[in-house]
Amino acid sequence: ADIIKKGTIKSSGVLKGRYPIDTITQNIEEAMSNADIILVVTPAFAHKSIARLIAPYLTQEQIILLNPGRTFGSAEFKNAIEKEIGKIPIFVAETQTLLFTSRQLNKNKVEILKIKDTVDFCAFPEKDTFFIYDTLQDVFPQLNPVEDYLEVSLRNIGMLLHPTLGLMNAGFMDIGKEFKFYKEGATFHVCEVLEQVQAEVNLIFKKLGMQHFNFCEWAKKSYGINAKCIHDAIQNIIPYQDISAPKELISRYFIEDVPTGLVPIASLAKFLGVKTPTIDSIIHLTSILCGTKFKDTGRNFSGLNLNDFISRRIKVHEFGIHDEELKKAHV
Q1: Domain residue spans in the chain?
Q2: Active-site annotation holds for 257
Q3: What is the pTM of this model?
Q4: Is residue 22 flagged as an active site residue?
Q5: Active-site residue among 257, 296, 322, 323?
């Protein structure tokens, strides 16, 4: 491959130049050798497989950062490692979104459209967050440590945008029609569906005592955009304007963001007794389009060993009792 031959990645956009890579390998043991920090920058559907692959080569106190984790990424990753090798003192965290807005141009060439001003991240468990921040802040000053894991993991922007926009433009994607995914695909009426998805997510947030999930606030924080609705925010995010839609139906907008975004959110809602008819419909319809039962293959909340974690959160919200008091009171 060209990238192996040249040993560099050529970048255009806000980062220009050739950037050397010390080691390019498909050998997991070689890639893990002497690594203090492991960045996992892949579609989230690969997280569990990567966790299983790297588990035999992990050493104590290594840092693993999923960029991004999507929904409950760190919890799934840590569970997968522990099933392979048992508990080991490592640190696992996830970002709320990708640091770079970027696209691969060809072979070893990429275009960096934007480096986000700030990206929230949190460890799982949360107590490890600031140790990771102290280690990474000089390399990634954009990382913003958040003490609440749910505040990072549930504010999954890809989950909100990609499946719905893909579903509403599925015909064009299926025939390979060229169009701009956000600029042309996110029409005012399509964005009304996004508003409804956001409203259902906020019912979950309310149950957990979390502040509202608001795409416009995220757009302001990440891109400096001021907008009053999702449609206006999307249409004013400059790096979004030139992003082309996938020219095939089966894309990561479905096979990543539904099973690792909407499925865990919907299954969490079921655990909490919250109804999410719009989200459920999107999961159902995209499953038909892709010929995959995403509810069966995705990150189901019941399989992530988070029941006690969420139950404690609800008790803190409803009764104002913190973890230490919960333990004393045996609530």
Answers
A1: 2-152, 154-299
A2: yes
A3: 0.86
A4: no
A5: 257
